[in-house]
Amino acid sequence: MDILRALERGAQDAARQFMAVPGGLSFTYRRTLDRAGQYAGALTALGLVRGDRLACQGSKSAEFICLYLGCLRAGIVFLPLNPAYTTSETAYFLSNSEAAVHLCDPGNVAAMTGIAEGTRTMSMEDMAHRADIAEPDFSDVESVGSDLAAVLYTSGTTGRSKGVMLSRENLGSNAETLADAWRFTESDVLLHALPVFHTHGLFVATNTVIMAGASMIFLPAFHPDAVFAALPQTTVMMGVPTFYARMLNDPRLDMEVVAHMRLFVSGSAPLSAITHREWSSATGHAILERYGMTETNMNTSNPYVGERRAGTVGMALPGIDVRVCDPATGANLAKGAVGSIEVRGPNVFDGYWRAPEKTASEFRSTGFFITGDIGAYDADGYLRIVGRSKDLVISGGLNVYPVEVEDVLDDLEGVAASAIIGVPHPDFGEAVVAIVVPRPGADLTEDRLKGQMRERLATFKLPKRIILADDLPRNAMGKVQKNVLREKWKSLFTASS
Ligand code: AMP
Predict the structure, then answer these.
(1) Are strands 383-388 and 369-377 parallel, antiparallel or unpaired?
(2) CATH 3.40.50.12780 fits 3-376, yes or no
(3) Closest residue CA from atom 20 of ligand 1
(4) Whether the Cβ atoms of residue 181 and residue 317 lie closer than 8 Å to each other
(5) Cα–ligand 1 centroid distance for 479 (angstroms)
(6) What is the number of the ligand 1 atom nearest to the C-alpha of 152?
(7) Are 395 and 431 in contact (CB under 8 A)?
(8) What gap in Å lies between CA 385 and CA 112, rounded to an integer?
(9) What does the alpha-carbon distance between residue 180 and residue 304 come to, in Å, rounded to a whole number?
(10) CA distances (Å), 474 to each of 413, 480, 484, in order?
(11) Percentage of the residues of the chain whose pLDDT score is greater than 70
(12) What spacing in Å lies between the alpha carbon of 111 and ligand 1's midpoint?
């Protein structure tokens, strides 16, 4: 079902709540649909037509969501951008997408104006004022499922990031699948503390709520005080692993504060088995981990009913093919074997914006999209991700899967977090290097850690160096930026030789 049809269905009940901002406004489905209509009218009055791109770089707000839905009503392609991008980064996205209009926070309008030829820059507030005077009963532009709904730029850790083209069907089908798989109903209230410029907060969270006719408490950001204040009014939380790790360190987390919650979902980065275990013992809830990406929406999920296995991302969602195959030949691999994770289904994107060759190189002729993730199915059919193919370390000709070594490190006493990278090495080609963040007060040394790891891993997997650090570089979703670490430590073995 199309997201807009689900929104209209919700609006038939005039009183049904959709989103509430604590200390701010609350929106019923009816009000959201009308506000989206006003935005659709205001954008159309600005001259935007079906297929034009609207880049939106505003802070997280309820209006941001209404604007997204307004674009769906007007057939305009929604293009959210991280407000943290600099002017030169933003200029690339605007020029590459040929955005007709770029909305940003008022303080940035002066700096952003004129950075991309043909793009008009305005503040979110200016746009909201234009919407205020537009009619809410906009007559929706006709659409079909294959129409482009959104372009999201990937975080792009190598080379320039690419625009992922998502159709209305990609979004609608995945929201239906998730609402069903995670048993969403009208009485659910989602705790929404994720950013909305990313697929997790914009689509997984928001679209699933709309599809179920449920509601959400919409927090501007993840602040523990606000999160703990909202918890007692919600039934489901979706988060990135860092949310759960931070909440575990908070004395307010106990069985009572989560007593009425029915589900905690994690994704966008690997949830460590330790966090999974600690969360279960602190709250009595097994976190449900799922796996997806901007290009494919959600692909796999641990079961709602049945074992939610730590360190795995569960099984393929209904209607979606998820296979593990030999990257060279494309032949399916047996359970237990590590290979390329590839996905096919109505959730998979249409291609990269204006990059047909790049698109072609990442799809097989059978329609499978090559995710770039590597993993294996276990004997019971749970998928385990062992890393991105470009993060694989090949040391002395042998493959080392970062997650396997990180799991061993994370299990050692005094280790708060770890990252394994490959660094150029004169003898081995690449050497395994660990960056380790100690827990507060822990007295870790490189030699002692190496000694403890030796009992659990084959020699070729052992880090040649372990570097202790205060922190790991992470992106907005809490994912470790291994490219930054590789750059930083690239001369570790070659500088002196
Ligand atoms: P993004 O497009 O920013 O959502 O990033 C997608 C990538 O995040 C995937 O290709 C995976 O590498 C990673 N990812 C997402 N969910 C998980 C998960 N549950 N466990 C491990 N990696 C994940």
Answers:
(1) antiparallel
(2) yes
(3) 270
(4) yes
(5) 8
(6) 2
(7) yes
(8) 39
(9) 10
(10) 23, 4, 9
(11) 99
(12) 33
Interval 365-394: pLDDT, tens: 999 999 999 999 999 999 999 999 999 999
**Cross-strand partners of 235:** none
Question: In the chain, what is the greatest distance between 2 CA atoms, to the nearest angstrom?
Answer: 72
Identify the CATH assignment for 393-488 out of 3.30.300.30, 3.40.50.2000, 1.20.1250.20, 3.30.750.24: 3.30.300.30
Q: Is the CB of 294 under 6 A from ligand 1?
A: yes
Our answer on whether the CB atom of 36 is closer than 6 Å to any ligand 1 atom is no
Reply yes or no on whether the pLDDT at 497 is more than 60. Answer: no
CA distances to 316, 370, 416 from 321, rounded to whole Å, are 6, 12, 35
Radius of gyration of the chain (CA): 23
Which pLDDT value is given to residue 225? 98
Cβ within 8 Å of residue 453, ≥6 positions away = 405, 408, 409, 412, 462, 463
> Regarding beta strands 163-167 and 351-352, do their DSSP bridges make them parallel or antiparallel, or are they unpaired?
antiparallel
Residue 261 Cβ < 6 Å to ligand 1: no
CA atoms within 13 A on the CB side of 64: 28
Q: Which residues pair with residue 468 across a beta bridge? A: 436
| pLDDT at residue 345 is higher than 70 | yes
Quick one: average pLDDT of 458-466?
Answer: 95
DSSP codes joined into one string, 33-49: HHHHHHHHHHHHHTT--
Residue type, position 453, single letter: M
Q: Which one-letter amino acid corresponds to residue 327?
A: P
**In this structure, are residues 265 and 211 in contact, taking their beta carbons and an 8 Å threshold?**
no
Read off the pLDDT of each residue in 476-494 and give the average, rounded to a whole number: 93
Asked if 3-376 and 393-488 have one fold, the answer is no
Q: Is 301 in the pocket of ligand 1 (CB under 6 A)?
A: no
Mean pLDDT of all residues in 405-428:
94
Structural domain spans, the chain? 3-376, 393-488
- CA torsion angle for 78, 83, 85, 88 (degrees, to 10)? 70
